[in-house]
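As practice, study what follows.
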Amino acid sequence: MFDAKGQRMNREQWQPFLKLWSEEWINGHDPERDGPLDDEAVRDGWLGFAPASADEVAAAEARLGRTLPPSLRAFLLTTNGWRDAGNFIYRLAGASELAWLADTDDSSWIDAYSDTEFADEDEDEEPEGEILARSLRLSLDGDAAVMLLDPKDIDERGEWAGYWLASWSGMGPERFDSFYDLMYHQYTRFHRLRQPEGKSGA
């Protein structure tokens, strides 16, 4: 149904995928283990929000000085932000909330992965701190975890490389080919950890 590289992830493809994710997340919720679910999300069976308008996306691009990658643009036009993007990310930004990591309260991630024991020692690899310093922050709240996009690492489809990073993982930033690939990873990780009943077979 979905292209593994996100090539067909327009609004028509995001909607059923995110609806399935929402249903499985809500149905698999354990009130004794998990944080409370948003009443609106339960009522609507939807972890997202109303779609961003084309003008809102254009305003975000003007503010950031970059055209957003296709899979992120289509996502925002489907839902302007997202709750519970996996077990460790509690909120994804809407169009007006997107910001460069260096300009946010989460900029300490950059220092933590520059010139420390976390820094990449492979001379053939770009230093992790440099990647983080230029990255777009996607996540607004998480369990010592963050989701990012790298505007310098762009493929032939205009997709930016995505990164998942958690201070407790014992690993550096984990790279994905696109925003869609990063989101699908979060979805499959949720399945591995929760094993909800659903249609995906993930």
About this structure: The CA atoms of residues 168 and 175 lie 17 Å apart. The helical segments are 11-27, 39-44, 54-64, 70-76, 108-112, 128-134, 179-194. Confidence is low (pLDDT under 50) at residues 1-7.
